[in-house]
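I'm curious: can you give me some protein's one-letter sequence along with its C-alpha cells because I've never seen that pairing?
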Amino acid sequence: MVWLFHQRTACKRQIRETNQRRDTVTRGRSRLASWLSLLMVLALLAACGGGGAPPAEAPPAAEAPAAEAEAPAAEEPAAETEPEAADEEPLGSTLMGTIEGPEIVLDVAAFPSEFNEAPMLAEMVAAGDLPPVAERLPEREDLLVIQPLNEIGKYGGTWRRGFTGPGDGQNGHRVAGGDRFLFWNASTFPELTPNVAKDWEVSDDQTEITIFLRRGLKWSDGEPFTANDILFWYEHVYQNDELVPVRSPFFNIDAGANLETIDDYTVKFSFPEPNSLFEEVLASSVNVFGGHAIFGNIGMGGFAPAHYLEQFHPDFVDQAELDALVEQEGFDNWVNLFRDKNTWARNPDLPTVTPWKTVQSIATDNWVLERNPYYFGVDTAGNQLPYIDRISMTLAENLEVLNLRAIAGEYDFQARHISLANLPVLLENAETGNYTIYLDPAQHGADGAFMFNQSYEADPEIGQWLRNVDFRRALSLAVDRDKINEILFLGIGTPGSAVVAESSPFNPGPEYRSLWSTYDPDQANEMLDAIGLTEKDSEGYRLRTDNGERLILELPTIPAFIQFTQLAELVKEDWAAVGIFANVVESERSLVEQRRASNDLQIFVWQNDGTDELFLYPYHAIPVADTSGTGPAFGVWYSSGGASGIEPPENVKVVLDLFSEGLKAGPEERIEIGREIWRIITDEVWTMGTVGQSGAFMGVRVVKNNMGNIPSRHFNIQAGQTPNISRPATFYFTDAE
C-alpha cells in the first residue's frame, strides 16, 4: 500500500504537469492534437490504477516530449516524501470533457424552407417508391429543427455496435429511440424541449397540461400520426386489464387522471390536484409516457399506431378471426400476440416515429435498424435526419467478447457494456484502433449497489435479518470501499453510500456519503453480536438462530455494464471477515429480473441508476413496483393501492407516503421531501452503496475518430436515456461519401 500511495502521488503530479503543458499550447492546436494529449493523460491514469496493473501507453501530444511523458514514478526521488496537494482535483476529473449537445431551434423564422434527403431515399423517390422529402415531413412551422453540435453532417454509413441478445433492447432504444412527447436539453438540463409534441401549455393551477402535435407528422409507413393514436393507446391498451394489469402511479386514472383529445393535433391531460411533475414525466423514459419504442411491448409508452395494431385487438377484430391469427402466429393468446407485434425491437413491420426503425429483429445475431424515411427532424440546413443510414448491432456471446471487439476498433460508437476496468488496454490500443475514449460519469450514488429486499419471505430467518436495520448497517460497515475503488474502478469513483451525488438538489448533505459507509469491521462485528448473531461454526461463520446452520446470503449477479460478479466477490470477502457467508452466483439478466419480480431475491446487485431523479425513477431506491430491489412485493402493494402484494412495515410506509406527497408537491417542496427520503433510506441502509460517479455505468465511450458531432461529455442520466439526450440523429461519419 505504501508503494501504491507513492505511485499514485507521482502519477498525479505527471498528470498535473501534462495538463499544464497542454494548457499552454491549447490555442492554435488542432482538435486531434488536443485529444491525443487527453489520451496521454488517460494513459497516465491507467498506470496509476493500482492493483499492479501495467501502465497503458497512448501517443503523446506533439508538444509533449516523450521523455517527460514516460518518466516512471519510481525514478523520482521526490515521490518518496512529497505529500499530495490538499486542494488537488480528484483523480479522474481531468478525463471528463464539458457537457454539451445540439440545440433545438424554436424560432420558426429560422426554420429552413428547402429540404434535402439521403441518397438512399432519393433513389427510392426517383423510382417512384417514396414521395418527395417535402411531402414526407411535417408542415414547415411544425418541423423539429436541430442545430448540430459542431457542423452540418454528411449522409451515409453504417454505425457498428455490439449487443448481448434479445434482453438488450435498451441498447437500441438509447441510440435510435427517444420518441417521447417532450425531451431534455442536453446542455441546460433540466430545461425541457419539444420532441414528438411541438409545444405544450400548463394551466395556472397545474391541473391541466395540453400538448400540441406536429401537423403532417407521419408514421414510418407514411400514415398520419394524430391524436387518435394517443386515444387508441389510452382507451384500448392502457385501460385494458389484460394488456396492462397494473397501471402507472404517474398517470393514475383510478385517482382521477384523465386524457382527452381536443382535435386531431391537441391532447389534454387533467388531474384532480396540481401535478407540476407531469411535464418531466412527458420528457422522461418513465414507462407510461416514455415512448412507444421502448415501452410498447408492455402496453405503455403514451401512443401506438392504431391503423396497424387494431388488427390484433379484440375490440376491432372478430374473436374467431383473432383466435385463428393467434394460432397461426404461434402464440397462446391474443395478449402475447399483440405485445409481440407492438415490440419495436422485434417487429420490422411495426410503424414508428423514431429516427431509425428495425429491419432485422433483435432476436437474430445481427440486429439492424435503417433510417425512417418519414422522420420529422431536420438540421438547420434543411437536411432530413438522421445522417447515418443504418445501425448494425452484432451479437456478442458475452461481455468479454464485446469488450475485446471494442478494443480492436470494431465498433464505431459504444458505451453500453464497456467496462471501466478495460480503460488501460483501451488506451493502449486507441491509436491502432483509430478511436478516442470519453468518460461520462453519472450522477447516481452507487455504480455498485446492494439492494436489501425487505419484503423477502421465502426464508423467514433471512427475511427477518434483511428487515433488521442494524444488520444492514453492520454489513455496510464491513465493506472496504477504498479497496473496491482501487481494484475495480481504477481509483476514479467516489466510495460511500448510495445517496445521490452532492451536485443533485435532492442530496441531503455531504455527511450522508460516509454514513454507515466507512470501513469499520470492528463496529460491524459488535453490531452483529448485539442483534443476537453470536454463534459461529468451526470456520468462523455466524449461525442461523432458527436451526443452528450456517447463515448464508445469496448474491445473484448479472454480467452487464460493471463487473458485478467481481464486485460481489470482494464484498463476500469483507463480509466473511465479520462472519457472514455469501454465495455469489452469476445469472442471465432476464432470469434475475424475473426472480426479483417474484420476490425471490434476497439482495439485488445492480447500480442505483435513475435515482438522481428520485420522483421519476424511484425503483432502485424505494419499493414502488415489482422492479424495486428494496422490496418488490411492497412495490406491488404500493402500485396496486393495497390490492395485492405484501403490506410493508410502518417505516417503509412512511417513505412511501412521502413519495406520494412528493408526486403532488410543487418543485421546491418536492426537493425537500426528496432530501428527507434520502435521509431516511441512507440512514437505514435500504441500499448498500460501494462506489459511484465513476463513469463505469455506460460512461466509458469508445468512438471512432471519423465520427462527427460527438459531445466531449454526455449528460449521463437515466431521464435522458443517454446518449439519446445528445440526439444521435445528428451524429455522422466525416468520411462519408
Q: What stands out?
A: The chain is about 30% helix and 15% strand. Residues 412 and 584 are 34 Å apart (CA to CA). The two ends are 54 Å apart (CA to CA).
